[in-house]
Write a structure and sequence with these properties.
The chain is an alpha/beta fold and about 325 residues long. It is built from 15 helices and 9 strands. It has 2 domains: about 160 residues, Rossmann fold, CATH 3.40.50; about 120 residues, N-(1-d-carboxylethyl)-l-norvaline Dehydrogenase, domain 2 (Orthogonal Bundle). Helices cover about 50% and strands about 10% of the residues. The radius of gyration is 21 Å and the shape is globular.
């Protein structure tokens, strides 16, 4: 129903004599209406830029005003609060660090739901607790809006090149409307089921990612200590059964690959603190579902230790540097 309401809003104030023309045109007009974007950090910034590249007018805000400068220079309209975004756009994407941030942006005193229009489509690409996604969906429904969770995988590089993978949870009849926007920012847009299932898929993916990165870092460090050239070892791994994303696309050893955080003192990318947060979400859901995740638990502890040792703001691949430090090789 929300999709119908959004489509009808695009036709208000315009008169068409031919019904068929109006039907065909409603989709093109929809694509020209403003899209709200809240959260312009390492991931949100390039995502919003890709929407601008596809011709969508953007109305954006961020708790840190300096984060808005780049998209503003590209033509985005910057406002002061999520409520103002909701007042000016009926399709809104949020990309925020954690569950409390999402709750504040949606239900806070200047939140989206204070000014949301009936029929609005609200897409949250943050990685948060699935139960919070369900709570936000229920709150949005009371206001006549539709909430979908659509967390992403791929990192900053994929966000910049519009090659993200979106895992979408929500009403299936709204998926097409969500995909129209998400396809501008990603190469894969997967429907997972009802609200919260997108988050479930993302949490599982990031737990595996953390385990794989730690394993790659340990393997590379062992090989180096055994006298192997790191580039040679990486090449062998990537043509063998040990190959994984952390070895062939995001290698954690400085000098092995260009264009990745390990080659830039682990700056940029996906922060260790965020990985620790996501692993905490995995632990909570594993406890609630009585699911044994021994390697996931160990990965969580390692990334928490890294945060305590000064690695919180560095990319999560800095686990290689952490391991070297632990053995006194830094």
């Amino acid at each position: 129903m929300a999709a119908v309401l959004r489509g009808s809003r695009y036709l208000v104030g315009r008169s068409f004599n031919h019904g068929a023309f109006a039907f065909v045109s409603s989709r093109s007009m929809a694509s020209k209406t403003p899209v709200g974007f809240i959260g312009l950090g390492n991931m949100g910034n390039p995502m919003a830029k890709n929407l601008l590249k596809h011709g969508y007018p953007i109305i954006a805000t961020d708790v840190f005003p300096e984060s808005c400068k780049e998209v503003q220079e590209l033509g985005a309209q910057i406002v002061d609060s999520p409520a103002e975004v909701a007042d000016k756009a009926d399709r809104i994407i949020t990309m925020l660090p954690s569950s409390p941030n999402v709750m504040e942006v949606y239900t806070g005193s200047n939140g989206i739901l204070k000014k949301v229009k009936k029929g609005s489509l609200l897409i949250d690409s943050s990685t948060i607790d699935p139960t919070v996604s369900k709570e936000m969906a229920a709150a949005a429904e009371k206001m006549g809006a539709v909430f979908m969770d659509a967390p992403v995988s791929g990192g900053v590089g994929a966000a910049s090149s519009a090659k993200l993978t979106f895992m979408v949870g929500g009403a299936e009849e709204e998926f097409t409307a969500a995909k129209e926007l998400l396809s501008c920012m990603g190469a894969n847009v997967m429907y997972c089921g009802q609200v919260g299932t997108g988050q479930a898929a993302k949490i599982c993916n990031n737990m595996l990612l953390a385990i794989g990165m730690i394993g790659t870092a340990e393997t590379m460090n062992l090989g180096i200590r055994l006298g192997l050239d790191p580039k040679l070892l990486a090449k062998i791994l990537n043509m063998s059964s040990g190959r994984c994303w952390s070895s062939d696309t995001y290698n954690p050893v400085p000098g092995v690959m260009e264009g990745v955080p390990s080659g830039n003192n682990y700056q940029g990318g996906f922060g260790t603190q965020l990985m620790a947060k996501d692993l905490g979400l995995a632990q909570n859901t594993a406890t609630n579902t009585k699911t044994p995740v021994p390697l996931g638990s160990l990965a969580h502890q390692i990334y928490r230790m890294m945060c305590a040792r000064g690695y919180a703001s560095k990319d999560f691949s800095s686990v290689f540097a952490f391991l070297r430090e632990e053995e006194g090789q830094q």
